[in-house]
Amino acid sequence: MSSDTQTLDIDAIRTFLDGRLPGFDGAVEVQKFATGQSNPTFLIKTPAGQYVLRRKPPGVLLKSAHAVDREFRVQKALADTEVPVARMHLLCEDDSVIGSAFYIMDHVAGRNFTDPVMGDTDPATRGAVIDDMNRVLAALHDVDVDAVGLSDYGPPGNYFERQLGRWTKQYKASETRTIPEMDELMKSLEEQMPADDGQRGLVHGDYRIDNMIFSADEPRCLAVLDWELSTIGHPYADLAGVIMQWQMPPGQEGRGLAGLDRKVLGLPSDEEFIEAYCRRRGLPEIDNFGFYLSFSFFRMAGILQGVLKRALDGNASNPERARKLGDFVPIFAQSGLNALSSTK
User: Where does the record locate the signal sequence feature (predicted)?
Assistant: First the structure.
């Protein structure tokens, strides 16, 4: 049984797959992906094909975090929709097999862009990739959750109110030092909470270009990955999450577009991306977008604080990167305050 995030018990995996995965003949080769901060992720190579294993990290975890069972369920439910996902194969909730719950899905071969600049591509390709990212986001929010069996995938009520409460608790549970900007942001979001407008649908929760696989031959999304934070909620949370990411500094740490000439790069402005999304979904202009953007900064700050806490506790998938990400918490908090005070 494997008890850390860096390795897998190959014999245990071989025993589990035998008789469960069609075509599997006992040969297994395992390689850990560098990505997958929250749930350690591994490439499983077999003669029957290549697969991906996503597992919960071992150890004491925050309540409701690392829900690989939910990841498995939502991707399985989306199999026949316009939202591209990997094919799901097996879910194992027996901790005794490798030390924590895990699932196995197809490995989707293609291009994965680590940031929206897409440095090795030309302007036309960049624009087309982002437009397909927009198309998939609109398709996700148009999914009929009742028809795909996900009507109970999230509780009713004001999504942003619920999420603010959840991430405030998560943040405080993983707090390692006092960050005045975060304290102020949590208070301000509570005070400026908009009334529930009734929009309710499936949201991804971490919709970014680096969580997508694109075709190697064309600007078409083949799979959306990393569904750990998905739930039934308000679609503007995902949309604001995209814009939030773009407002971060460019490069491998920020992975944003701040300060870059998007027109020269072939990339849309924030407003153009939002307009395209609204057009695809037949929506009017979005009021009070600054609140949704601020909330996205707050929630990401909470997520990064959790990543830092796991690194300090010895449970992080990539400890060095986790500590670097933790440095962004006060930056995200201040950005959230800036967005909340904007008139956008």
Answer: none
